[in-house]
Amino acid sequence: MFLRKFFCSEISVGFRIFVRDKSSWDIITGVCVERLPVVTPPLNDIQKKFKNLQWTIEVEKSLKSNHEIRKENDKKQAELLKNESIEVDLDAVSKITAQDFEDASKEELENFKFADIETEADKRGDKSTHDRCLQKHLVLVTQVKLGKDVKTILPQGVWTEGETLRQTAERALLEQCGPDLKVKFLSNAPSGFYKYKYPTEINGKIGAKVFFYYANYKAGEINKASKPNWLTRNEMTEILPEKYNKSVQSFLIEETY
Questions:
Q1: What is the pLDDT of residues 229-239, one digit of tens each?
Q2: Are strands 25-35 and 205-219 parallel, antiparallel or unpaired?
Q3: CB 234 within 8 A of CB 256
Q4: Global confidence as pTM
Q5: What is the rounded average pLDDT for all residues in the chain?
Q6: Type and span of the H or E element at 14
């Protein structure tokens, strides 16, 4: 009898705590949409050393390429032709030699010009497009209404009963960014967490618990009504609230350039 009353009491207390927590906080899902670098970022010192080491090992251990073998064979045929040897292969001599191919390739390389990695958006200082800062990671932020204020943060939506957090994240992106935006979620579980209290209680809620999902940008444009911006790590530090930004950057790859 005592144990029965004890367990009933524990269940009742647990239920009250669950209901209180459920009613006291808004559950929100934020989505960190990141555009990965389009152009290879510059190598740091360690990466340069590793690259040089790999190149040295490749040169020391590699076999001769078809081009090198062909070049050596061309030299032999040229010597035989010069000495008027009967062993010369006239069909091989009449073709374009490996040296001719090498000279033509060098000429083509000298005339080739790499495209400028600075885009028109970079020149204009336009942050509303992902076609900028091609060597850096960019994170999508939008203007979200929080009470009477409008904040520039990650796209987010309030969880509703019957949804999973992942479904809330997908719905938030659709509602704020439009159907044209295509992203790839990397997991069904959140990547980060942030909690804050409201200045005053709103509809019985004392604050919000934000669960961040991480996704990679694939294609498509974003609804301009949400006033999107694609920010670098440093720009996020300047624009996002300090503690909010710290929570987001804790699950992102750190950039050192």
A1: 999 999 999 99
A2: parallel
A3: no
A4: 0.74
A5: 85
A6: helix 2-24
